[in-house]
């Protein structure tokens, strides 16, 4: 049968305490030390990752600001280029308009000169025809006067 002996219980308790002390001395403290070191290492790595994330966020903000500034500068350059192109376009249209006016004026003057030349030539031709007609009339008229006197 089973009997409960006070010395057995005491011896068992002492054995458990000694085993606990040995385990605590050689195992638990070392394991806790390793766990603590790992915990510190993990915390350090986490802090490093968080710091790098913050640095990356700062760099991203800087990049975004630079990108916004570049986009604004590009928009400004495009606006200025459009204004310059509009000025050049307007200037060329004015130049073309002035040139077209000069061409029209020259064409009018040339047409007027041609008209006057044609009128002058026509007058000369008419004068020449009138002179020829007068000469023939005089030539024929003199003959008819001579024929009328002879009859």
Reconstruct the topology from this structure.
Layout lengths: L5 H145 L1
Shape: rod-shaped
Tell me about the biggest sheet? none
The Cα radius of gyration reads 62 Å
Order of helices and strands: H
The helical percent reads: over 70%
Poorly predicted runs of 5 or more residues: none
How would you sum up this structure, described in words?
This protein has one helix and no strands. The chain is mainly α. The longest helix is centred in the middle third of the chain and has 145 residues, at 6-150. The chain is rod-shaped and about 195 Å long. The mean pLDDT is 89.
Write a compact overview of the structure shown.
With 151 residues, the chain is mostly helical. The chain has one helix at residues 6-150. It contains one helix and no strands.
């Amino acid at each position: 049968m089973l009997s409960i002996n006070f010395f057995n219980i005491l011896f068992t308790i002492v054995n458990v305490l000694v085993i606990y002390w040995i385990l605590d001395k050689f195992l638990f403290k070392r394991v806790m030390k390793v766990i603590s070191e790992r915990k510190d290492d993990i915390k350090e790595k986490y802090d490093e990752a968080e710091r790098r994330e913050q640095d990356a966020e700062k760099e991203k903000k800087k990049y975004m600001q630079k990108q916004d500034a570049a986009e604004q500068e590009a928009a400004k350059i495009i606006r200025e280029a459009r204004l310059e192109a509009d000025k050049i376009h307007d200037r060329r249209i004015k130049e073309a308009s002035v040139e077209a006016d000069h061409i029209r004026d020259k064409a009018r003057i040339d047409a007027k000169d041609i008209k006057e030349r044609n009128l002058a030539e026509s007058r000369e031709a008419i004068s020449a025809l009138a002179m020829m007609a007068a000469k023939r009339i005089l030539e024929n008229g003199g003959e008819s006067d001579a024929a009328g006197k002879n009859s």
